[in-house]
Design brief:
The protein is an all-alpha fold. The protein has one domain: MetI-like (MetI-like fold), CATH 1.10.3720.10. The chain contains twelve helices and two strands; from the N terminus they run αββααααααααααα. It has helices at about 10-35, 50-55, 60-90, 95-105, 115-125, 130-135, 150-175, 180-190, 195-220, 225-230, 240-250, 255-290; strands at about 35-40, 45. The protein has a two-stranded antiparallel ribbon. A hairpin with a 5-residue loop joins β1 (about 35-40) and β2 (about 45). α1 (about 10-35) packs across α12. The longest helix has about 35 residues, at about 255-290. The chain starts with 8 loop residues before the first helix and ends with a helix. It comes from Jannaschia pagri. This is ABC transporter permease. Belongs to the binding-protein-dependent transport system permease family. InterPro entries: MetI-like, MetI-like_sf, Sugar_ABC_transporter.
């Protein structure tokens, strides 16, 4: 008996495929085209091959920006993941205050990125900003426009303030899925608070934590608006991350070929590290589930 295959579902998927083609595939092909050619204007191109890729791989500028980017993402993950878990563990489980905390935690996520940068730019100013003025008043030399450590501290604290709530909300959702019977059994066995967290809560949160780590890594590795608004990549190049350096190269210097090669390598690095994160976390989840 022949099985009838219904292909009508493709008509429902077609609009999505067209949208993805216009918003992702076609721009990507344009970037690839620029990465292997050179131009002097007037829409005249010359074949350059892998010249721009070789130039970028031998560029200290790109490797320095990559080092700053990796350091920033590592610091962000090291702070936001444990802090988000801690906040989720201490949030009310039900009732009015649970709803209140959920709304409160969601507020930073609703603020646009450029507004977040503007808020912290003003907040950290010594002359009119509450943070900058207070630190200056108590004798702490704080100026994120001139001091390397102050600029990094400002950018990191700003990102932690903006995105820790995302990790907390995801971890809270994982905690809410744990049946009360698990806690009752742990109470009967007189399990310590650490053991309850280690053997009950953490395994149940691993799935959402994997999502949180992937989202926060990808977003922190592509961060642009907030540090650009606050520090402009300075002082010097201390907060010039990969995205800021790429924009300066493409729009500021109009080096389209090197910028296109830079962006493709940037994309591949994000894809590779995200795949490594996903593979490691998936294997850990399977091992814990055995």
């Amino acid at each position: 008996m022949n099985k009838t295959v219904n292909q009508k579902a493709w008509f429902l998927v077609l609009p999505v495929l067209v949208l993805v083609a216009f918003s992702a595939v076609i721009p990507l092909m344009t970037v690839v085209n620029y990465s292997v050619q050179d131009t002097f204007g007037n829409n005249v191109f010359f074949w350059a091959g892998l010249e721009w890729f070789e130039e970028m791989l031998s560029s200290d500028r790109m490797w320095d920006a990559l080092g700053r980017q990796i350091a920033f993402s590592a610091i962000i993950l090291a702070i936001e993941i444990p802090l988000g878990i801690f906040v989720a563990l201490n949030m009310p489980k039900s009732g009015f205050w649970a709803s209140f905390c959920l709304v409160l935690m969601s507020l930073p996520l609703l603020i646009p990125w450029n507004v977040v940068g503007t808020i912290w730019q003003i907040f950290g100013r010594v002359d009119i900003g509450l943070l900058g003025y207070t630190l200056d008043a108590i004798g702490i030399n704080y100026n994120y426009t001139q001091d390397f450590y102050a600029a990094w501290a400002t950018v990191i604290v700003m990102d932690v303030w903006h995105w820790t709530s995302l990790v907390a909300l995801l971890a809270y959702a994982g905690l809410q899925s744990i049946p009360d019977a698990y806690y009752q059994a742990a109470k009967i066995d007189q399990a310590s608070r650490w053991k309850v967290f280690r053997y009950i809560e953490l395994p149940k949160m691993m799935g959402v934590l994997m999502i949180a780590i992937l989202l926060r890594f990808m977003d922190s590795f592509m961060i642009y608006t907030e540090p650009f608004v606050v520090t402009g990549g300075g002082p010097g190049n201390s907060t010039t991350f990969l995205s800021i350096d790429l924009v300066k190269m493409a729009l500021g210097q109009f080096d389209l070929g090197p910028a296109a090669a830079f962006s493709i390598m940037y994309y591949l690095v994000i894809l590779l590290i995200s795949w490594v994160f996903y593979t490691v976390m998936t294997n850990l989840d399977k091992r814990d589930g055995v």
